[in-house]
Specification:
By secondary structure, this protein is an alpha/beta fold. The protein has one domain: Rossmann fold. The longest helix has 13 residues. The model has no long low-confidence stretch (mean pLDDT 94).
Amino acid sequence: MLDYDEEAAVYDATRGGVPRAEAAARAVLGLVPPGARTLLDIGCGTGLVTERIAAGRPGLCVSGTDAAHGMARVARQRVAAVMLADARRLPVREAAVDAVTAVWLLHLLREEGAARAVVAQAARVLRPGGVFVTTVDKDAAHDVGSDIDEVFAPYLSPSPSDGTERIIEYGAASGLDVVGSAVFRGHGQGRTPLSAAHGVRRGYYASRLVLPGEAAERIARALTALPGPDRPRAEPEYRLLAFRRRPAG
């Protein structure tokens, strides 16, 4: 698994930077009701998306949380209120906020029960009628029918932690009903064989691939042998789901 304290220094530059963050923020805000006054972005990372959510909705009070010291440190340079916190145990009172967002978080939660716990926490801190917006099927969005995908195919995890049906099930159990969805483009995220090989060796795909023994090195070698090793394949399109917390009683 990646060390996100170390990854913070290069995260934005290697994940599509501002164009991807702006696309994500626009899509998120399209699902947040205009009457929302407070929004908590959990797993906010470097705060690049969080900052743009705040800028895109003047009057919306936006705060963030992240479990990695390095990420939170960078985020605090962009967002005034960022807490260091595990998303499974948010230090926020019940029914405290109008909206909760989780962008590119749930797919990382491979530990049994972790994604369910995060969805439950999002529901807990939402006021009745509040909205939870999260990415789903994040890793699958990168499957664009390319030769890279063919190399990855035999090693794909059979049960991603952010699968749509799974997250809908978790939401329903916590009093959250689906009320909308959106897609946005992952600008700058079109993989090349060389970048994919580097990612495999760095552990970027731990949430997507099952790589026993020497499998990571075998995949990396197969990727570097593909034609056009520096040519980006198609960019992914990420999906968001919006849930509303049921009224009390």
